[in-house]
Amino acid sequence: MDAPSYMLSKIAEKDNLSVYELFFGPNHPGMHGNFGYVLEMIGTEIVKVRPNAGHLHRGFEKLMEQKLWVQNLALVPRICVVDPDPNEVAYCTAIEKIMGVEIPDRAKFIRTITLEMSRLTSFLMGMGALVAALGLYTPMYIMMADRDLLLDLFEWLTGARIYHIFNIPGGVRNDLPDGWVERLNEVLDILEKRLLEYDKLVFENPIIHKRLKGMGYVSKEDAMKDGITGPNLRASGGAFDVRVDDPYAAYPYLDVKVITQDGGDALTRAVQVRLEFEETIKLIRQALKEMPEGDVRLNLGNLSMLKVPKGEAYAKVESSKGEFGYYVVSDGGLKPYRVGVRGPSLPAGLLYAQKHLPKMKIDDVAAWMASLAICPPDIDK
Amino acid sequence: MKMQKSDVIKQLVDRGNKVYDLYENQIALEVKKDNLLNDLVFLRSIGFEHLSFITAVDFIDEGEFEVVYHVWSYTHKIHILVKVRIDRKEPILPTVNNLWEQAQFYEQEVHEFFGIKFEGNNDLSPLFLENWVDIPPLRKDFDTREFSIRLYDAEVDGGDI
Predict the structure, then answer these.
(1) What ipTM was reported for this prediction?
(2) Lowest mean pLDDT: which of A24-28, A206-210, B141-145?
(3) What is the pLDDT of residues B73-91, one digit of tens each?
(4) Which residue of B20, B52, B132 is the best one to mutate when testing the A interface, meaning the one whose CB has the most A CBs within 10 A?
(5) Does residue A256 share a domain with residue A150?
(6) What's the structural domain count of chain A?
(7) Which residue among B49, B68, B128 sits closest to A327, beta carbon to beta carbon?
(8) What are A49-59's pLDDT values in tens digits?
């Protein structure tokens, strides 16, 4: 008997006794992006986990040292595909901090609106991925269709659906076009109404409760010291939000409500996203109402000749997955000296995988990943 | 209890460190390699419990690496860049993975991209690059263009550098 078929028959015969390795990803329907876990399995139960990162490593940090300040704007949104705007804003904010300039108020509000729209698209994608991992494909299709309404608005505003490259050092590229705000209001109304449908299809669905309850518990203390941020931290009871604690863009002028829950498990995190989705819609309406008139960008001269003075800054943004940070060092030249990126997914994706996944069944891995909103591109960079 | 930024700066200066007041809610702290663990433990004890990430900067002209530990306090709402300079020829630092568990992966990353060793960290295996043979790629003396030409044995035709 040759080796492969011998292995298979051995597993089939002694299901409980033989340990085998299973590659969950990089090419797997339940995996988000090209990332993988090498799972050591007994039967259908996981024994040990080895994260298999690097398939998405594109060398952005090195590449950014070789491009002009403004050219890098085409690179940064690609670090997180589903929630691109926080990258642009964090990178631009870091540059503005080093230069010591403050952007016009209207630009701050437009940045805030695009950030919150990006959060909505990411939440829709995240909720869709979670329910699809549990076999509920219909709500996922509805959510993807709803996400497209927002992408249409992004296309109208910036010319691009996913990578907008809309924020630039000194503000945003252009003002809101005529009729855009009205359409945004319509879309927000549609999304708000749709939430009731999501509630029926997803959040009141017994399958969701049965599968997610108790899965992947994170306590507040663990989350705070292990670097878990954003909705995951707030679902464990930590009332912390970068938008409130270290405000940027127009958040100092807005009333951001920090929602917290105490559960700390996957079900609580799923509900957390739904609650924050509702709050984000309100926040966009608030920003639209309070948006002042005026300029949308500073005149910093020819941006492709932009020189940022010697210095360093760390700027962070509350993305849909947690704290997104850019550490920018300048030596006064035409290119950054060093850009370091802090993605929100690393603590959950690498550390908590090793804590949570052992003893879990193979069926739960995709749902567990989606519940922690793990986005591998920002681990690999 | 929430401390003001000036109080935090005063406490750090009293410990004999160099502190730079960078921006609102952000300060930079220069520490010595031998004091690194003491200072990080001290920062944690006064409420800086969140480690954002660890990164490094290659100051090749000065012959030094600068490793930066980003810590944030949920109580005081202050971000501190804890910076430590080490010799480029002998890049060794003590590990902090017993202070913060996630530091394990940041240290693996910094080791992979800069070649900095972390004493006490037993697993510095590469996370991202497969079969990497050259010098660590985020060092300033690593030339991507020259590397690609060498790796693929390419004939150079045009290009702007």
Answers:
(1) 0.89
(2) A24-28
(3) 988 899 999 999 999 888 9
(4) B52
(5) yes
(6) 2
(7) B68
(8) 988 888 888 88
d(CA B71, CA B78): 8
B49 vs A contacts (CB less than 8 Å): 224-225
**Are A37 and A141 found together in one domain?**
no
Give the CB-side neighbour count of residue A111, counting CA atoms within 13 A: 32
* Residue A15 pLDDT level (bands cut at 50, 70, 90): low
pLDDT at position A375 is 86
Chain B residue at shortest CA distance from A51: B127
Predicted model pTM: 0.89
Query: Are A236 and A343 in the same domain?
Result: yes
- Domain end, chosen from A28, A52, A76, is at A52
CB contact under 8 A, A323 and B52: yes
Residues of chain B contacting A, Cβ within 8 Å:
22-23, 25-26, 28, 49-53, 55, 57-58, 68, 70, 74, 77, 79, 81, 100-102, 104-106, 113, 126-130, 137-138, 142, 144
Q: How far is CA A228 from the centre of its chain?
A: 13
The DSSP code for B127 is: S
A223 and A96 co-located in one domain = yes
Cβ proximity of A16 and A334 under 8 Å: no
Q: Are residues A35 and A170 in the same domain?
A: no
> Do residue A235 and residue A326 come from a single domain?
yes
Domain spanning B5-152: CATH superfamily: NADH:ubiquinone oxidoreductase Nqo5 subunit (3.30.460.80)
User: Strand B26-31 vs strand B18-23: parallel, antiparallel, or unpaired?
Assistant: antiparallel
Domain ranges, residue A280: 60-380
The answer to whether the beta carbons of residues A37 and A50 sit under 8 Å apart is: yes
Which residue shows structure tokens 């959040």? A203
- Residue A361 DSSP label: B
